[in-house]
Amino acid sequence: MMSPNQIPENRGPSHPATLRQTPLQVIHVIGNLMRIWSVYSMYRYLSQTGASVLLFIFSCLVPSSILCLLLQKPWKGRPLTNTQVVPSVINGGVTALYFILWGMGLKSCGPLRAILAEYSGAVLGVLSAVLYGRRGNLWKKVGGLFAMLASFYFLSRGWALATKSPFSFSDNPDTEFQSEEIGVKDMLIPVFAGILSAIRRVVARRLSLKNQLKRRLHAITIASATCFLFPVAMWDMIIGSTSVELPFSAWAFSSFVLFGIILIFYVDSIAEERLHMVFSSPRHLMVAGGCVIVMEIAYKMDFSLPGFLLCATILGFGIHEATSLDRTRKDSLQSSDISNGVYEDRIQMSALPT
Hints:
This is Zinc transporter 5 isoform X1. It is a multi-pass membrane protein. The chain crosses the membrane at residues 51-71, 83-102, 114-132, 144-162, 182-199, 219-238, 250-271, 283-299, 305-323. Keywords: Membrane, Transmembrane, Transmembrane helix. It is found in: Membrane. This protein is mainly alpha-helical. The protein is globular, with a radius of gyration of 21 Å. The protein is 71% helix and 0% strand. The protein contains 13 helices and no strands. The protein has one domain (24-167, 183-239, 248-333).
């Protein structure tokens, strides 16, 4: 019998594995495109009607939590332990705070900057290197951190906007949405939201490595986030807003529920488990960047393609350096275990940054 770590002598080429991954890659691209489409629909609705961000997100979380509970049925199957349920409930509070900051950042900074700021969670890779990593990789991760900060600074200065980019030579761009002037402080809101998003992903990954159990705990997390957000949304409706417009835009509401909350969880799970592609990675950023370009052109946003590509490239480089593993150790693991799936298990159990 072949041992788990033994390499088969007659191992064929990896073309069949690549072909098997192609449908999964297509699903990942389509899922991210639909999610980003829902974000742009949400932004257009909020900017045109002036509706409350908190009420809109809360009204989307309520049906999302109900659907997640009905689909996963966490009360059925093997009973969940307190060491799994309690952190999932606490993770719901982190998720609720993430949605609050992300919604505020979306309304103030626009969808392009809010989506790219979600990748700020890669700074956790720098933190893990400082606390647990090797000193040889520390300066590389710090350099990646400075590259990410530079990208976010350029985004806050409007380099990805046609009206403010130094690479735009048109005085009157054909746009339907003119972006408002923002500063570095405004950009910090979606950046902090991205860090919270990374924390909730790390917590969910630490609680369970099994797909079915992970989905059951995710349903508890979304339901908990809805409960945490309820008093904040009610306070905003009673005191915070002088004129409240309930979010009854059918497409903005339904698309964010289906694609922005429910579908994207399964799509990212497939990408992480089958394609070994975590959220804060250059490959994921490349997919999201392509979807952002499509939506910016389709919605006729204030968009500068050269400026966006420059900011996205700097951000991708920073993420690559900030989340880079020890190449020698990673290659040795892959060459010895990828033939029988052990490599996939070790990747899932490794200290991923986000």
